Amino acid sequence: MPVPERLCLLFTPSLCRATPWETLTAAIDGGVDLVQWRSKEPDPEGFARCREACRRAGVRLIVNDDVMLAVRSRADGAHVGQDDLPAEAARKLLVGQLLGVSTHSPAQIEAAAAAGADYVGFGPCHPTPTKGYEVGKTAAEVEAALQTAAALQLPVFAIGGITAENLLPLRVLGVDRIAVSSTILASPDPRAAAKALRRLL
């Protein structure tokens, strides 16, 4: 399934500086074109509001970790990590829906492609407190990941501590899709934060 999107927002309502729904709307208005629902606790009401906001804006919604929620809610897809439901099993459940897989090495990218992933996340490209990573990937590691994915024709979203200030070196390496969280959610102006990132993509 084609993945033309470039700027993915990892949307966790509890991490928003402003109200979650103002933040989400502003981020989409600023250029976010893919949203991943990423709540650690079950939040049916919040998810429903997020889904409706994405539908109104014409932006696809992916569910992080909870593949069955994606299936039941008819979201646009699900994203799984290396310690979640195996990608092969997720692929069988997600009929006609997107499957994204978190990866940290070329070997994991190859495995995701073999499992039927539509795209992968790769990182962390920089240290990030959101996931507890203290060290980011080297330029050589990012390049190797991009080369592996390109050979497999698999879109890659770089992830991990990415901001408008540190995105340019990743662009030079060939990164053209990113997934971000705190740089938008914690911003006093989520629309401007999204716009600054979008201008660089």
Q: Care to describe what's here?
A:
The chain is of the alpha/beta class and 201 residues long. 42% of the residues lie in helices and 17% in strands. It contains nine helices and eight strands. Helix 1 packs parallel to helix 2, helix 1 (20-30) packs parallel to helix 9 (190-200) and helix 5 packs parallel to helix 6. Helix 3 links the parallel strand 3 and strand 4. The chain has helices at 20-30, 44-57, 67-73, 87-93, 106-115, 139-151, 167-173, 182-185, 190-200; strands at residues 7-11, 34-37, 60-64, 77-80, 98-103, 119-122, 156-159, 178-180. It has an eight-stranded parallel β-barrel, surrounded by seven helices. It is globular.
SSE blueprint:
Layout: E1 7-11, H1 20-30, E2 34-37, H2 44-57, E3 60-64, H3 67-73, E4 77-80, H4 87-93, E5 98-103, H5 106-115, E6 119-122, H6 139-151, E7 156-159, H7 167-173, E8 178-180, H8 182-185, H9 190-200
Parallel strand pairs: 1-2, 1-8, 2-3, 3-4, 4-5, 5-6, 6-7, 7-8
